[in-house]
Structure of Hydroxyquinol 1,2-dioxygenase:
Amino acid sequence: MEAHEKGFFTEDDSVAVVTGRNENAKDQRLKQVMDVVTRKLHEAVKEIEPTQDEWMKAIFFLTQTGQICNEWRQEFILLSDVLGVSMLVDAINNRKPSGASESTVLGPFHVADAPELPMGANICLDQKGEDMVIEGRILDTDGQPITDALIDVWQANDEGFYDVQQKGIQPDFNLRGVFRTGPDGRYWFRAVKPKYYPIPDDGPVGQLLKELGRHPYRPAHLHYIIKADRFETLTTHIFDPDDPYINSDAVFGVKESLLAEFRRTRDPERSKQYQFAGDFWEVKHDFVLARANDECRGG
Amino acid sequence: MEAHEKGFFTEDDSVAVVTGRNENAKDQRLKQVMDVVTRKLHEAVKEIEPTQDEWMKAIFFLTQTGQICNEWRQEFILLSDVLGVSMLVDAINNRKPSGASESTVLGPFHVADAPELPMGANICLDQKGEDMVIEGRILDTDGQPITDALIDVWQANDEGFYDVQQKGIQPDFNLRGVFRTGPDGRYWFRAVKPKYYPIPDDGPVGQLLKELGRHPYRPAHLHYIIKADRFETLTTHIFDPDDPYINSDAVFGVKESLLAEFRRTRDPERSKQYQFAGDFWEVKHDFVLARANDECRGG
C-alpha cells in the first residue's frame, strides 16, 4: 500500500492526500472551492519553494493584514484589490450583454443613505474645488431612455478625500447624491472635479506595494450605482483619461469604456446659469443598463 | 493598442496586467513570489468563479483568522497545517540524503529553555498516565554513533495536553527534557504514553474543518529536535501506529518512517529498576542525522 493510501503525506501526492480528507463534506460547493484552493496553494508552494523563513513571513503578513482590520478598514479587501482579485470577481459576475455599460469595483466609501436630490443639484456642499457639470442619459440596450432610474453618485473632493474620511472637515454627505430620471432618461448634476488619491497605504498592503515598487494611487473618478426596475443594477465609475495614474490604477478598476471626457469650458452664460464663478469642467456620459433577464456574453 | 498594454484590466489578461506592475520591484525574489501567487490566485478564481457573496465570505474568513491570533495562538499556521502547506514547506526544505531520519512539523508547543536532564530521567513530573520507557541511538548515515548529540523532547500528557496549555494544573516543564548522548550515541528516558488530541478547533479553522466533515485530531506522538555539531538539525515526531487517528492526522504530520513500536511490557524486574509500579510501555527508536554538507536527494 502506498503512503498516500494510508493517509500519509508525501510531497508528490500532497494534493490528493489533503483533498482526500474533504470527502465527507456535506456542502459540495465548499468541497469544490477547498479542493481548488488546496491544489492551487500546493502548486504555488511547489513552484516558489519557500524557505521556512519565507513561509513564516507570509504567515506574519496575513496575520497583520487581519489584525489591522476594523469597522472602518478592510485590509483583506485591499489585498484582493491590489492583486486584481476583486476586479476578476467583478468581471466573472458581470458579463454583460453587448452594448451594456461595464461595471467596476464598488470601493469602500459608498454610503447607503445619501439624500435623493432634484435633478441639477450641486452635490459639492463646501464650495471647494473646480466646478464641474455632469450630464447624460440612462438607456436600455436598444437605445431607449429608462424612466425612474436611480443614479447614486459619490466622489472624492479636490484633495482626494471622501466625506467619511474627513468627518468634521467636510460637511456630511458632501459630494454624494441620488437622482431619479424622468421619461427622457436624462440626468444632470453639479459637482467638483475629483482628484487621484492613494488607497490606505500605512498597513501591510501599503508596505507590500512599496516593496514591489508600486504606487498606491487611484486615478480620479466618480462612482455610480444605477438601479432601475427590470434592469441589472450597474456598479461602476467614470474616469478622467488625463489623470497621471490612468494607466496604473492601484486596484485595476479602469476599463476603456469607463473613460469619460472631462472638457474645460469657458462659457460665461452657462457659468451664470449653473451659478459657477468662472470656467468649469464638463462631462457627458451615457450609461446603458442590461435587462435583468438578458443573456450574458459569457467569458 | 490592446487594453492590457494601457494597464487596463481584462479578464483574459488579468495575470499579465497585475504582474506587469511588479517590474520595478527591487527584491527579485519578492517579485518572483508575488508573480506566482498572483498567477495561482487568478487561476483559482477563474476555476471557482466565486459569487460576490462567496468572495466576501472568503474575505471574512481570512479576517477572522487574523483577528483570533494572539501571543499564544497562531490561526494562520493552523490553516497552513490543515491544508498541508506546512508539511509541504517542511518536505521542500528537508530533502534528506538516503538513510537519514525524516522530519515533520515543529508544532506550536516547543519551549526553548527546557532543562537538560541526566540520561534515564523521568520527564513525567506528576505521576499521571501509563509509564513508558524510550530508548535508542543517535547515528550518522554510516551507522556510527554520534557523541554529544542534544535530544530535546516534549509531549502531551495522557489527556492530550501540553504543560503550557495547563499552567497551574501540570507542573512547569512537565513532559519536557533535553538529553545529551555519550560516545555510544545512546539515549533513554522515562515518560508516560502520550494520547491523541485536537488542534485548537474553536476558531475559523476549526469551523472550516467541521464544514468539510474533517475531525481536528492529531494521533499520539512524541516531539524531538535533535542537534549535533556538523549535522543537520532534525525536527521530527515519533508516532504510535495503533492510534485511532494514525491515518488521518489533522495536520498531515505522519510519515511511514516515523511510526515507532509502542510495546506493552510485563517485566517486574525491569519495572522495579525503572521505579514503575507495574506493566509499562516500551519504545525503541534510532534517529539518523544527515551531515551538514550531505548532498540532498532532491525533489
Q: What stands out?
A: Chain A has two domains: 3-79, 97-289. The longest helix of chain A spans residues 28-48. Chain A touches chain B through 77 residues (CB under 8 Å).
